[in-house]
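Could you help me review a protein record that somebody else here produced? My question to you is simply how this chain folds and whether the tokens agree. Thanks in advance; the entry in question is below:
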Amino acid sequence: MANRPSGYGLSGELEGKKHAKYDIDVEREVRQWMERCTGRPLPVQDVGEDNFHAALKDGVELCHLANALQPGSVKKINSSKMPFKQMENIGYFLDMAVAYGVPSLYSFQTVDLFEKQNMFQVLVCLRTLRTTAEKKGFKV
């Protein structure tokens, strides 16, 4: 198999399409909602796909959001910098989101966030979670 730099051919086109779908305005909306729900500012305040990834990658803020929407849904939030613990946090959030009522179609895979493979899908999930919470009467 040829060793080519990423960003070429079909994989490059697909990667470009994923990034093109990312919407800064939706990110701002989701950020503000998350901060209102948790009462905590996200650790990285600048907007943009890279910054949003940096703010959420360890899963800590997602776990705080899960507990704000459904208290006790995440029993232990890992603060470790070890990748498997950070991915565990993301997994806890995803389990809560689906149990809370987010259709799995609107969810994302752990690697979509952890490895920044599909931040657009992360936004879709968080926006759907917000809609689901509002339908359940959650107010911030």
